[in-house]
Amino acid sequence: MTQALAFDPLVQALHAQLASVPDYRKGKNIQSAIKDAALGAFAVFFTQSPSFLAYQRTMKQAKGRSNADSLFGIVDIPCDHQIRTWLDLVAPAQLFPVFAGVYDALESAGHLSSWRVFTDQRLIALDGTESFTSHEMHCDRCSQRTHRHGEVTYVHQVITPVIVAPGKHEVIPLEPEFITPQDGHEKQDCEQVAAKRWIEGHVDHYQQVTI
Q1: Residue 63, SS3?
Q2: Do the domain assignments include residue 102?
Q3: Helix locations, 48-135, DSSP H
Q4: Which positions ≥6 away from 88 have C-beta within 8 Å?
Q5: pTM of the full structure
């Protein structure tokens, strides 16, 4: 019950942030709100079904209400194609305040007190991962790998900082930092440079941490 009560304010904060997400769609035949698309994408992480939308629609037909309604307040569940198409136009930074908001809410509620280690600090682990690779498709935000035989691989990479603590299986995700070509830089961006950029941009907010 305590966890359920604590979850509602976080969802409300998410709703408030998504309300400011710009809607770049054109035309008059727009029924679903852009916020519902973002909530639908977020809610995917709360089900183990390989198809979130099919699972939610089946539940709604069987029980009259889905988890998307009861947990996240999604009015109209968009289809997979709609979610991808609508959200591709939204800059990721539009959602970054959600990470700090969740962190602040957990901190204020005292849920992060057990995450302090060593000299009463917290640990942030910075790790890089890839979200896209291709030998043909690419954009101006891709990094490149040139192989010995001359073939080029285009990749999208990102630093994913999380707060960790010994003995805890859960992590607390923080704002990501994308590894992408930087204006005015001749050298290609890399994990170390992106990690340094993240630290410089967020050290003031996440104080008393060890990185």
Answers
A1: helix
A2: no
A3: 52-63, 67-72, 80-87, 96-108
A4: none
A5: 0.76
Task: Name residue 143's beta-bridge partners.
Answer: 155
> Residue 105's closest CA among 33, 7, 207, 32?
7
Q: How far is C-alpha 198 from the geometric centre of its chain's CA atoms?
A: 15
Tell me the H-state helices in 76-205: 80-87, 96-108, 191-202
Angle between helices 52-63 and 34-43 (to 10 degrees): 100
Whether 104 is in a domain gets the answer no
pLDDT digit string, tens, across residues 102-150: 888 888 888 888 888 877 888 999 999 998 899 999 988 888 888 888 8
Residue 41 belongs to domain spanning = 2-90
Q: Domain count of the chain?
A: 2
- Flag whether 97 is in a domain: no
Helix H or strand E encompassing 3:
helix 2-18
Tokens of 8: 């509602």
Distance CA 100, CA 91 (A): 17
d(CA 194, CA 89): 23
CA atoms 40, 41, 42, 46: torsion sign: positive
Structure tokens at 26: 């054109």
103 vs 173: CA distance, rounded Å: 9
Give the three-class secondary structure for 143. strand
Q: Are 163 and 171 in contact (CB under 8 A)?
A: yes
Task: Report yes or no on 95 lying in a domain.
Answer: no
Determine contact, residues 57/80, Cβ cutoff 8 Å: no
